[in-house]
UniProtKB/TrEMBL annotation:
Gene3D superfamilies: 3.40.47.10. Residues 245-388 form the Thiolase C-terminal domain. One of its GO terms (molecular function) is acetyl-CoA C-acyltransferase activity. It comes from Pseudooceanicola lipolyticus. This is Thiolase.
Length: 390
């Protein structure tokens, strides 16, 4: 039942990059503040209006993520009454949308600000040496898998073994995504890309080539949410949050229940779609986490856009490219636009831009409903959000 407290997105902002690095000189916290203020201003609000603050931490802040909401709140000079520091990797920001939506519905806050900032490329570090040990990874790390690519490669190998998926299928995703990036003046990589280019690029962890892997860049983004009733007083085009879901299963890839099936995405997607009251045919565009090409293929299957094992056929023939039947990752995604450690924030920003009709040359005509799905860890967590044009 509608009561005016339905959650909507009213402001977005991201920091400009050049060659994958911040254009402006500031600390990672400074860039977080920059996008936070810009998103609030775009919404027609003031920082003093913000009483909900959500962040998954900031790459580059010592002891990554510790007291991140407290640190950021102090830096912004605000006193939030609702905070959320949930960090489930790249899907954290889709989860934040859900948590902020629930807080807004229940009156825990009136204006929620979600922020992320990373200077990962500038630092040339992911702080792996400073992370606490994970007991279940004792069976993996000694064999050369301290970083995610090995785990994703294992999933790709398994999918190929079970279903006959090919490296060409995965390359279709990278090429289609690059075509979207060529329409985005802010994308880091805009040079032409062919399937042969992907297949001839350096093998990183078989079967994943260099061009099957996401970029490493800086990045900062922010998003402002409030209630539909409050949004009536703002000079903005609200985007409604209609449904959401999240799930996670493991940290270490050896604990993943099924390497060829992305169960968190299945659970999160089912819940989000049911809550929103939509069907797959209602969705006009999708923004899916693309840390690696296999991430996308597994997600498409788990989210129900095609049957398990048929992802390779689904993406063939550049179906997800501009002009294709299935618009996906319209900014150029993590494979070609940017990927600052955790990319989920930027999936949301792009979806909002598309639903507002602000996509420029890459605008999806008639876009009214978007599905956004984030993946975190090593295929560990999933969070899905359904957004609709206001």
């Amino acid at each position: 039942m509608k009561n005016g407290r339905e959650p909507v997105v009213v402001g977005i902002a991201d920091a400009p990059l050049k060659d994958g690095k911040f254009v402006t000189k500031a600390s990672v916290l400074g860039h977080a503040a920059f996008v936070a203020k810009a998103a609030v201003e775009e919404a027609g609000l003031k920082l003093s209006d913000v009483d909900g603050l959500l962040t998954a931490g900031m790459w580059g802040v010592p002891g990554p993520g510790q007291l991140a909401t407290v640190t950021l709140g102090e830096y912004l000079g605000i006193m939030p009454t609702f905070v959320d520091g949930t960090n489930i990797g790249g899907s954290a920001f889709e989860a934040h949308i859900a948590h902020a939506a629930m807080a807004l519905r229940e009156g825990y806050c009136e204006v929620a600000l979600i922020v992320y900032s990373s200077d990962q490329k500038s630092l040339r570090s992911r702080n792996l040496g400073g992370r606490p040990s994970v007991l279940s990874m004792q069976h993996e790390t000694p064999y050369g898998m301290p970083t995610p690519v090995g785990g994703y490669a294992m999933a790709a190998q398994r999918h190929m073994h079970e279903f006959g998926t090919t490296s060409e299928n995965l390359a279709e995703i990278a090429v289609a995504t690059r075509k979207w990036a060529q329409l985005n003046p802010e994308a880091t990589r805009r040079d032409p890309l062919s399937i042969d280019d992907v297949l001839s690029s350096t093998m990183i962890s078989e079967p994943l080539h260099l061009l099957d892997c996401c970029l490493v860049t800086d990045g900062a983004g922010a998003l402002v949410m409030t209630t539909a009733e409050r949004a009536k007083d703002l000079n903005t085009r609200p985007v409604a949050v209609k449904g959401y879901g999240e799930a996670h299963t493991h940290w270490a890839i050896g604990e993943m229940p099924d390497l060829a099936r992305l169960l968190p995405a299945q659970k999160a997607g089912e819940r989000a779609i049911k809550m929103a009251g939509v069907s797959h045919s209602d969705i006009d565009l999708v923004e899916i986490y693309d840390s690696f090409t296999i991430t996308v293929l597994l997600s498409l299957e788990a989210l129900g856009f095609c049957k398990i094992g048929e992802g390779g056929d689904f993406v063939s023939g550049q179906r997800t490219a501009p002009g294709g039947a299935f618009p996906m990752n319209t900014s150029g995604g993590g494979l070609s636009a940017l990927h600052p450690g955790m990319f989920g924030m930027f999936l949301l920003i792009e979806a909002v831009r598309q639903l507002r009709g602000e996509g420029g040359e890459r605008q999806v005509k008639g876009a009214e409903t978007a599905l956004v799905h984030g993946t975190g860890g090593t295929l560990s967590s999933g969070a899905t959000v359904i957004l609709q044009k206001g």
